[in-house]
Amino acid sequence: MPSATVNKPRPSELLSRLTSAEPEVKVRALREVKNQIIGNRTKKLSFLKLGAVPAVAGILADSIDDVTENNNCNNTNNFLVQSAAALGSFACGFDAGVQAVLDAGAFPNLLRLLANPNEKVVDAVARALRMIYQSKLAPKYDFLQQKNMEFLISLLNSEKETVSGLGASIITRSCETNLEQKALFDAGILRKLNSLLEGGSLSQRDASLESLATVFRNNPEVISKFAGPEIGRPLSSIIDLAKDRYPRTRLLACMCLIVIRNASPHFLQDIGIKTKLIHILLELLDDPGQVGDEAPFAFSSLIAQKEDLQKLALEANAIDKFHHHIKKGSLHPRRYEGILLALADMCSKLESCRSKFLSLQVLNLVADALTDYNAGVRAAACICLKSVTRSIKNLSAGYFMNETIVIPLVQLFLDPSTSVQVAALGATSNIVVDFTTRKSIFVQCGGMKQLVQLAKSMESSVRSNALWALKNFVFQADNRLKEGVFSELTASLLSSLIRDPEPSVQEQALALVRNLVDGCINLIEFVFAEDGLILGAIGRQLQCASKAEIGIQGMYALCNVASGNEFHREAVMQLLFTQMGDKNQSFVVKFLQSNDSQLRTATVWTIVNLTCPSSPGAPCRLEKLRNAGIVSQIKNMVNDPCVDVKVTIFFIFRICFLFASLFWLT
Amino acid sequence: MASSKKLISREEWEKRLNNVKIRKEDMNKLVMNFLVTEGYVEAAEKFRMESGTHHIDLATITDRMAVKKAVQCGNVEDAIEKINDLNPEILDTNPQLFFQLQQQRLIELIRNGKVEEALEFAQEELAPRGEENQSFLEELERTISLLVFEDTSNCPVGELLDISQRLKTATEVNAAVLTSQSHEKDPKLPSLLKMLIWAQNQLDKKAAYPCINDLSNARLEDPTF
Fold first, then answer.
1. What confidence tens digit (pLDDT) does each residue in A428-450 have?
2. In angstroms, rounded to a whole number, what is the distance separating the alpha carbons of residues A199 and B178?
3. In angstroms, rounded to a whole number, what is the distance separating the alpha carbons of residues A601 and A482?
4. B81, A35: Cβ pair inside 8 Å?
5. Residue B95 with chain A: CB contacts under 8 Å
């Protein structure tokens, strides 16, 4: 039985009709393609693969030629409108489409057509260009060229909403540097945008808000010029729009105000506006669409790093509201990610927020998010955990070291996305600083072995974060645990990590050694394993340390080794002095002269351990240090600004006096 | 026993009302706004000729009404083409609305008994929407289940076949087109009347006065104790 006839041509058939000689066939095929792709991402992709975009761009180009030759106006306009609309639809929210349109060379043609006398043509073309400018792939607009600025001004001055909207979206996409922001201000663009805010239509107001935010971003100078007394009180129009009836306008107005707040310490700092912003954004969460999805991100940009705002938000029951929304379930991934990140920001500094979070049992929901199908959500859940696990009170109580959290977290170590891996490692680093006896749970679920595996990753950020987690894991851990880690790591791996090409990896590896050898004297043997591989690596790395942090961790590691027995101390001395023969200064002197007080502190502590009077070899070592000019260097540090250094130096002086008096005695 | 409420006589009330000046142009604009938003094209044009009140380009109203009518009659494919001619961005940036229209298309195919075509359409056009956006899957399943039931008038999802479903979609489409034209989707007149009712409720607590109970004729009724 024949199926009902639809007479729907196959896509390939449609495409061939696009090149037909008969204009009727061609225009009908063009319109059909346009109608099939609008709203339909799947069709956009399939037509794209068949090469539809160059074909449509070709029709556009041909029609422009017809216009110049004044051929058959109505038909030509129809072709222009349909092809521009089709190109615009390919570019709408679809990066592959944008790329194809640009590659087909349609962009300059579209620009030219903005001057076309027919309104419908201009509308279609302006929309298509705006779709392109909404993508990251849009060509960069050079505001600093005079004629470009003039063109932009003409766009903004246009009566047509589609055209002025295009002008605004060019600014929103392309304005990046302070120089460009200033150029836009000097050209009077902000005044124009402000007039669109006050007298324009809904879409013009929204577009204006986005552009203004772009021009204000990180530029306090432009902001104060704009908000200054000469132009009236333009900030008040933005504040009013934050209470507008349309949710999208409210959101964009809030985002603009937040940009202003964050850039400039003079504006919008009173508690009234802060509270209002918080309430508006929390209320926008109720919007079921894209506005509600973006609201938590705006909320984060408002409160991130700012304790006063986090406190206000806590009082406004922000955590309860976020909890309520996550509990509802079936969230759009973008919204889910946003809420998790907002919770992470809320709990990043204040213990009161973390307590509220934990008391509401939000932790279980966040643990669920660790296994979400969306990578952004998984990463956000880890970042949220990292914030919450900063709660020392709960860490000490062993609250987080349990299977509900640890098992899914360890699984994320193998996540295909690097950013998820790094985020999971970040959360783990906090959780393993567990002061109870529950660290073994982490070993039991395979976490420790996984961390060692990740320390061999190709990605340097994964290596350094894995080492960070291991460093925290062995912090004040019992000997058995430390031995387990060391035997899994092996001396050769650890020494190669100390000599890793990435400074951040070197630093974490040295810090790991520091924590490993701290405590029981038996553990110091680690650095001597396999012919002193690790000790040698430390020495070589300290010689060429590229930043202070590496020196600090390395010296503290040596400091801990020197707290052992005579053999250990002599080994450290040898390390310090193997470069003595060189023309190069010993790194010890370099470190003592460093600007970094922590580095100076670590170095003098090491010297204290080496010359501690109770050990028989101490006088000999002190003599060597004196001969190497290190003692006189220390004497110069009597007035060191850092208290830790001063106090330690005082110890060294006492040691010197003690030995001096002994010297007289013998 | 004297009432604590103040009594205002009809005479005094009317005197007070007369002191309030309302501009003719404002009233004309309200009427025009109502006619335009509701889509009464000919009435709007006649009113413009007779009162001199401006309105937005009538062609856009006519276009919008054509779209709404197409949906109401179940000619969804035609409606989609018309919307795209008006403004291709509407459906490109509104996945919810696009899905609703596609869903309506499927419903119409099922209503007309074109089962094979309906299945093919569901597979080719609607399933990808569900893949692109998981929240549509539930609605999609509901619609497909229409095919399962022999007696659609009694099945749990029977309401989808009801004319009210078409009207719902038509209203959504109308609102989307209005918004895209930067026109407000609701007329002002109902808001004014709601404000009147609210104000009267507030005043009721403090006074007895001639009030309007029947909005359609706006007749003042004498105050009662």
1. 999 998 777 788 888 888 999 99
2. 19
3. 26
4. yes
5. 39
Please answer yes or no on whether A38 and B131 come within 8 Å at the CB atom. no
Give the pLDDT score at A2. 40
Residue of chain B nearest A81, judged by CA positions: B85
d(CA A366, CA B186): 41
Q: What is the pLDDT of residue A71?
A: 61
Token digits of residue A246: 């349309």
Chain A hits for B188, CB-CB cut-off 8 Å, are none
C-alpha distance from residue A123 to each of A207, A545, B28, B183 (Å):
16, 61, 31, 17
Identify the helix (H) or strand (E) that includes residue A634: helix A630-635
SS (H, E, C) A592-624: HCCCCHHHHHHHHHHHHHHCCCCCCCHHHHHHH
Other CB atoms within 10 Å distance of the CB of residue A117: 9
A→B interface, C-beta within 8 Å: 3-4, 6, 31, 34-35, 38-42, 85, 88-89, 92-93, 124, 127, 161, 201-204, 289, 330, 332
Kindly determine whether residue B94 and residue A39, on different chains, have CB atoms separated by under 8 Å.
Answer: yes
- For chain B (225 residues), the mean pLDDT of every run of 10, in chain order, is 76 92 92 86 91 80 90 94 94 92 93 89 88 80 82 78 91 89 80 93 91 90 76
Between vectors from CA A55 to CA A54 and to CA A56, what angle results, nearest 5°? 95
**Secondary structure class of A251 (helix, strand, coil):** helix
Alpha-carbon distance B77 to B47, whole Å? 33
pLDDT under 70 in chain A at which residues? 1-7, 70-72, 229-234, 579-585, 661-666
Of A510, A618, A503, A506, nearest to A555 by C-alpha is A510
On chain A, the residues whose CB falls within 8 A of the CB of B128 are: 40-42
Per-residue confidence (pLDDT) for residue A229, from 0 to 100: 65
Chain A to chain B Cβ contacts (< 8 Å):
57
For the full predicted model, state whether its pTM sits above 0.95: no
Query: Measured between CB atoms, which of A92, A202, A332 is closest to B93?
Result: A92
Kindly report the nearest CA distance between residue B171 and chain A, in angstroms.
18
User: What does DSSP assign to residue B207?
Assistant: E
Q: How many residues are given for chain A?
A: 666
Query: Where are the alpha helices (H) located in chain B, listed in sequence order?
Result: 10-19, 24-38, 41-51, 58-72, 76-86, 89-92, 95-111, 115-121, 127-132, 137-144, 163-180, 188-204
Q: Cβ contacts (< 8 Å) between A289 and chain B: which residues? A: 96
Q: Alpha helix locations (H) across A141-201?
A: 146-157, 161-174, 178-186, 189-199
- According to DSSP, the β-strands at B220-221 and B211-212 are antiparallel
- Number of H helices and E strands in chain A, helices first, is 41, 0
- Under an 8 A CB cutoff, do B135 and A4 touch? no
CB A383 within 8 A of CB A426: yes
**Which chain A residue shows the shortest CA-CA distance from B109?**
A4
pLDDT at A390: 94
| DSSP result, A409-453 | HHHGGG-S-HHHHHHHHHHHHHHT---SSTHHHHHHTTHHHHHHH
Which amino acid would we find at residue B45?
Answer: E
- Mutate one of B57, B86, B92, B104 to test the A interface: name it (highest A CB count within 10 A): B92
Best mutation target among A30, A38, A132 (most B Cβ atoms within 10 Å) is A38
Contact B92 A6 (CB under 8 A): no
Chain B residues touching A330 at Cβ < 8 A: 134-135
Angle at which helices A362-369 and A318-328 pack, to 10 degrees?
A: 50
B84 contacts A38? CB cut-off 8 A: yes
CB pair distance less than 8 Å for A6 and B117: yes
CA atoms within 13 A on the CB side of A600: 22
Q: How far apart are the first and last CA of chain B?
A: 11
